[in-house]
Amino acid sequence: MSPSPGDEVKTTTCYMCACRCGIKVWLSDGRIRYIQGNPDHPVNQGVLCAKGSAGIMQHYSPARLDKPLLRVGERGKGEFREIEWDEALRIAADWLAPIRERNPDELAFFTGRDQSQALTGWWAQQFGTVNYAAHGGFCSVNMAAGGLYTLGGSFWEFGEPDWEHSRYLMLWGVAEDHDSNPIKLGLGRLKASGAKIVAVNPVRSGYGAIADEWIGIRPGTDGLFAFALIHELLKADRIDLDYLVRYTNAHWLVIRNPGGADDGLFARDGEGRALCWARGLPDGASEGRAHPADAIDIAPAVVGEYSLADGRRAVPVFHLIAERYLDPQYAPDAVSKRCGIPAETIRRIARELAEAAFDHAITLPIAWTDAYGRQHTEMTGRPVSMHAMRGISAHSNGFHTCRALHLLQLLLGAVDTPGSFRYQPPFPKPIPPPNRPGKTRQPNGALDAAPLGFVHNPEDLVVDANGQPRRIDHAFSWAYPLSAHGMMHTVIRNAWAGDPYKIDTLMMFMANMSWNSAMNTGETIGWLTDRGEDGEYRIPRIIYADAYASEMTAYADLVLPDTTYLERFDAISLLDRPISDADSASDAIRHPVVDAAQQREGRDVRGFQSVLLELGARLGLPGMVHDDGSPRYRDYADYIVRHERAPGVGLLAGWRGEHGELEAKGPPNPQQLQRYIDNGGFWRSHVPESARYYKMANRGYLDWAQKMGFIGHADPIVLQLYSETIQKFRLAAQGHGAQQPPPAHRERVATYFDPLPIWYEPFEGAQVDQVDTKFPLSAVTQRPMFMYHAWGSQNAWLRQIVARNYLYLHPDTGARHGIADADWITMESHHGRITVQARFAANVQADTVWTWNAIGKRRGAWRLDKDAPESRKGFLMNHLISDITPKGDYANADPVTGQAAWFDLRVSIRKADAEQNARGESEPQFAPLAFAEAEPGPLRYGAEFRARRAGGNHEQD
């Protein structure tokens, strides 16, 4: 019933976080008047958060860059001269062309939260560099790898709880920044239906605040808590054996041959099929014998040791599970103190999970056929669902913690059944997914595959003949073998150190690596500015693309100014980070709702994706030029429409074919983008009703997914309780196989490559406690619902909610350390020290302190006022985090995936001295950057609309 807020409305996709909601952008005389949610969009159904609404001030931010910049002063000062695009592209091409000619690996190309990895990864592949990575290794690769090597899907963006049917939801380490609107909608449905919500998190904020129960766990112990729940379920025999035998490898036989090259591998027949021990067989034989595990109408054993025809001994996977997790070390009383959770609470949660799963099972009257041809008249579900995010992922034990949660789900029969965790298309994928990381260059200089992928065995590692890393970040090496997203957080140190070799150019996009995306800010700044004995920078050249004058912009030699998200085309692709829900496959676009050239006088910016394609054409990269050397693509919009990753497969799945009559696969459609625009910016294809559950073994889904191009074949996907892939690495570390780790890594690989989930003390805590116990507290960050990284906390409207942060600690913690509410305190880790202001809050586990992430700013950055509270009183915890372990032997990361272990941080706190208290500023403080100063006075927007209408219809104001 509201009056129209503008004279024109356009629909597109939000970019104020990773949620990618549909929005309606109202314009008035060509200027943005109002942003609201699009009620027709499948992601948010019209709901919009503070971030999305404040997109106006993101677009009109004073921090926007206007022209390409060439450094004229010392690196890091922020002193540049504006240049034209032709000069900028000529300089970039002149730097990159010799690299590609002599050794493409001398280019390190690392992207932040760009959401266009389908392009940037392909570009790196065509350039020929193995040194490409994206933000996930800094953020969520434990989540992705843990799920994809276990379930063929994962938490976060590849799956969701069954919001309609779930009766019991556990949120593990979930903050409010990612996927927030769908989660809020889902939580509302669960609250209305009477489901119980349990939040497991050291901090109670956002979702935890509305949960029925908050479990304030000690950071890094989630896996131990999960094992205690598993222990109780096994002890009570409250597990779904039918589900395990039908859909997992619980009954597959594992060879027991200690010291042998086949120890821990699956027993297989001559055709390579995994074997089980079948007691009941279709032919009526009663004696047990080894039999293909994928056969139907058999009664396989799940416990016991058996002798194979060749004399080898083997046990079922489930036998190993029971053997391990029934051990008293995982009993609630044994883990209670370490987790900070009462033993009776653990036992009660286990009982509640079992009751919800087995005593309140739900049945949907939907007929379906499984992958083996069996017909079912209904779908039975376990209404227990789980969702997890960075809180469990960003630890050095996070990969195994993620696998532990999946093991818990599987024992309950609660993966892709009604009421449980559900896959979102194009998942599930084969386990592991088929694409391996590229490492060999073809005659045209391009890599044989994209630089990122999934390792299946030691032979897939990107190492040299001596087993040493070939990538500058050491991803896919023996130190971090399954680093599926790369290791962005190790790049700058390694490039500075020339480890394993010197690079020439570091090219980055939307990655604030000199500030809030640095594992240690001060050290990173030093590496970016350090010079060698010859007086030249040790990282010779840095090209940086961003829309804003961030802290990282100051450290570039060449700055390529990006557009805002309302001025360009983007593809939110099924090849990248899809926006599907469990019942449908979806993708979307962004398109220019305003013309960048008309937004500010003298402003000349270009979308980085288009710039990348033009740069590729200037370099003559394969796939980016015609035979005569002319550019193959006009710009990114043209690439979205015409590029085919495989015949008929492009970035967008909707309206393919000459006339837009096809979906998922088909020839390019010249009108495809217009069809998206006409449809509100998105495409959606519903999964057939009979194919919406049991996707891993549902004939209807597997056939549909193959037709859509999501999977290469329609074979069932067997969920992996026990990972043979991981066991292959352990065997290599024990001296077996053609590819073995160097001696320095053998013990590490043998320890952490356990085919069943394990728990170990996070590295930082374990190593500092070996020296002393002066760092008794864990320190973590939460990302607020109303901000998303540094790019949101510079937003004028969002800054009115929070313009500085505090260190929050429990009142009891303050009393133990002689600290009063609002005191300025010194906070110290093994690696650094900061001064911050403390506030008491009871919403935190008493051995943990926390703060909001990415609020602190450097003076001069983001064109904030020189006295902005973000720089005077705000702070980053990053100053305390080391990028290497306290021992200095490895990156501060998960040993399996290389995931940055942000949340392993251990600290001490004490009241600051009188001088620091009197000064009332956070420390450290850095010299201001030399960007243009902010305009004096408040930043306002919209007053001209009111003034223009002052004499008109008051209701239109």
What are the key terms here?
Barwin-like endoglucanases; 26% helix; disordered C terminus; 4 iron, 4 sulfur cluster binding; Asp_de-COase-like_dom_sf; Dimethylsulfoxide Reductase, domain 2; 957 residues; alpha/beta
Describe the structure.
This protein is of the alpha/beta class and 957 residues long. Among the domains are: 150-426, Dimethylsulfoxide Reductase, domain 2, CATH 3.40.228.10; 723-755, no CATH class; 765-919, Beta Barrel (Barwin-like endoglucanases), CATH 2.40.40.20. It is 26% helix and 16% strand. The protein contains 30 helices and 35 strands. The strands form 10 sheets. Strands 5-4-26-25-24-6-7 form a 7-stranded mixed β-sheet, with helices on one face. A 6-stranded mixed β-sheet has the order 31-33-32-35-30-34. A 4-stranded parallel β-sheet has the order 11-10-9-22, with helices on both faces. Helix 9 packs antiparallel against helix 12, helix 9 runs parallel beside helix 15 (398-411) and helix 12 (332-339) crosses helix 13 (343-359). The radius of gyration is 28 Å and the shape is globular. It starts with 7 loop residues before the first strand and ends in a 9-residue tail after the last helix. The relative contact order is 0.15. The model is unreliable at 953-957 (pLDDT under 50).
